[in-house]
Amino acid sequence: MKRTQPAAGADDDAVYVPPLPEHEESIQHSLFGEILDWMLAPLLLLWPMSIAITYLVAKSIANQPFDHALEDSVTVLAQQVKEADGKVVARLAGSARDILRADDVDNVYFQITGPRGELVDGDREIPLPSPDDAERSGRVHFRGETLHGAPVRVAYAWVNLRPLADPRTDPPLALVQVAETLDKRAQLANAIIKGVILPQFIILPVILALVWFALSRGLSPLAQLQERIRARPPDDLSPIDPRQVPEEISPLVGSLNDMLARLADTIAAQKRFIADAAHQMKTPLAGMRMQSELALRQGDPEEIHRSLEQLAKSSESATRLVNQLLALARAENQPHAGLAFAPLDLGQLARTVVGDWVQASFAHEIDLGYEGPDAPVEIAGNALMLRELLSNLIDNALRYTPPGGSVTVRVRLEAGHALLEIEDTGPGIAPAERRRVFERFYRILGTTASGSGLGLAIVREIAQQHGADIVILDNPHAPHKKFPGSLFRLTFPLPMTPESDAA
After folding, report:
1. C-alpha–C-alpha distance, residues 456 and 333, integer Å
2. Range of the domain at 426
3. What is the model's pTM?
4. CA angle, corner 273, sides to 268 and 274, nearest 5?
5. Do residue 166 and residue 311 come from a single domain?
6. Is 269 helix (H, G, I), strand (E, B) or coil?
7. Which of 154, 161, 236, 284 is placed for a possible disulfide with 83 were both Cys, Cβ 3.0 to 4.6 Å?
8. How many CB atoms are closer than 10 A to CB 253?
9. Checking DSSP bridges between strand 406-414 and strand 367-371, what pairing results, if any?
10. Residues 177 and 79 in one domain
11. Do 258 and 381 have their domain in common?
12. Cα atoms in the 13 Å half-sphere on the side-chain side of 26
């Protein structure tokens, strides 16, 4: 059963519990068992097929020597069949009959018939071959029959009674057949099968044991890698040496190293944030404590009021510092959390943010304006983060522009890019300082305006996430050389459209 978010009106402090994984996704598979199944399953399936093929081959091998013996018997009998005074005779002595039938396992039958199918000698029960069963030549042929309810192997041949007659005439032919039951053949086939199959019953467990041992040895590097990872200290995020693992595991180790590098960056950012927050909060907190202690010692209401005003200013500065630290942390962690981009109108966003800062510009006695095209300037970005970026740039411009000056926010299109420009008529930034002002907590020497030095660091993080380039130039529209002003220009890539893809 899945857990869902609490409904409206529920306790606001309730923690969202993500849904449990599906049953199919929670099943863990053993790599050892998976490989073992894929190796042993074909082996166990092919083993019965091997037995069946072995049985058929054994029967074929067992038939060959006994067929040769039957062929020899037919040949010997055929040599004894002659024609005398128009009759077919077989010159078989009694001893020859005994030798022919001498078999202590199988029953042997023979039959000699004349050209008209009359029985000359032997057993009448042997069936005659079909007229189309074989060509009537002197060669020995074989077929299977059933005699007295038992299967027999029959060898037969046609004997030409007048070998010296004209070949163009049809000579009289006698038929010689010898039949034998199949007991010896079955015994030989069974012996062959036993000689082949019985060793397999011994070899198969050995094969299984060797496969098990080989898999255990082959997967041992995974167990060793697991032990090395478990033996690491909790704070050790150094990459795993890929040379100590097999080649097949190297891609996995590479992915782990990438994950460790990202985790190390995240932890370093968190440590840096905690150190920066602790360092920067010392001064305002110490000032607030000093102002509160001073107010407690004062007896004059005016002095107490003055101390409380200073305490309020200090708390305002501390609040702004905390907000900027949180904004910087959020901006730095967005790539890891997955920043959601959506199409938005950069001009509309800039107009809205400028409207939010109009009252603050009145307090600073600065003319705050906006310039932009009437048509939408669409980019792909996160509206919340871009509002934070623009707010920091406008706040920075208002703080450093003297009263009576101007700050202009401009949006325009140029060379297939969207440009966002913020120009002011302040003291400007020297070229040597323009790279360093984006560092956190860095402030130009001699600056009297209040600030924490985090605003431009936040701007740089958000610009990098949106693939935007940011440069600082002199304001070309500055009215006084004493105040060259600054021009912050951000260049955003335009989203891809079907027309641009085709181009």
Report:
1. 17
2. 340-502
3. 0.44
4. 100
5. no
6. helix
7. 161
8. 18
9. parallel
10. yes
11. no
12. 5
